[in-house]
Amino acid sequence: MGQQSLLALIFMVVILAIVHDVANAMTCYDCTDDIDLPNSGVYYDPDCGRYDYDGNTHTYDGDTCLTAVYDNGDVTRMLYGYGDSIEDGECIYWPGHTTCYCKTDNCNTQSYCEQCEQ
Question: Does this entry carry the keyword Signal (predicted)?
């Protein structure tokens, strides 16, 4: 194999790897308005609790975003890293908060998990 052919093959492999990563990436809003959530790795934004939040985002290797609404009114929006086991629109009730899940880019806004109300 000539040097030109080898370079073309390497280029194609790199492009395929990039396309694969982009195809499996998910962009979610990533924030919390809970100032008492130290060292969580979630971006603190006092506006995170706004219904129509349109601030900090992060692109992850995953397929599910979440919104967590706490009994005290705090809101956290982020990626859920175990999305294979979660359905789009699913709700999970935890002590002190409700979490709802979605599976499209930036889907974790304009919701306070109203579909979860029991």
Answer: yes
Query: Residues 6 or more apart from 100 whose CB is under 8 A from it?
Result: 66, 67, 69, 89, 90, 91, 111, 113, 115, 116
* Strands ordered across the beta sheet of 97-102: 31-32, 75-79, 65-70, 97-102, 91-94
pTM reported for the whole predicted model: 0.77
Collapsing DSSP to helix, strand or coil, 32 comes out as strand
As averages over each run of 10 residues, the pLDDT of the chain (118 residues) reads: 50 39 78 84 93 95 94 95 86 95 96 87
CATH number at residue 68: 2.10.60
Residue 4, domain member (yes or no): no
Residue 41 confidence (pLDDT): 81
